[in-house]
Amino acid sequence: xxxxxxxxxxxxxxxxxxxxxxxxxxxxxxxxxxxxxxxxxxxxxxxxxxxxxxxxxxxxxxxxxxxxxxxxxxxxxxxxxxxxxxxxxxxxxxxxxxxxxxxxxx
Length: 106
What we know:
Structural class: mainly alpha
Number of domains: 2
CATH architecture of the largest domain: Orthogonal Bundle
Order of helices and strands: HHHHHH
Distance between the termini: 56 Å
Helix content: over 70%
Low-confidence stretches: none
Strand content: under 5%
CATH superfamily of the largest domain: TrpR-like
């Protein structure tokens, strides 16, 4: 297996960090990935969020159409990876909490 952490992937990450909004991200990802890859990544992201809330593998497979192997792989990276899934899930949850705190105060 090739080392994924290299100059080419660093340049890709740098490019992603230059995206300013969701519209730009959609445009870039659609050019970079196939439609099938984008759909697959979306399913994996959904699985990670569902796993974090304790939803069963079988329910995740049913909801996302992912195989049990892929759900297990997502769970492995969620629990024993580099904490990338957890970082973003927690950041989204924190953002939602901040957004809901400001509602109803005006």
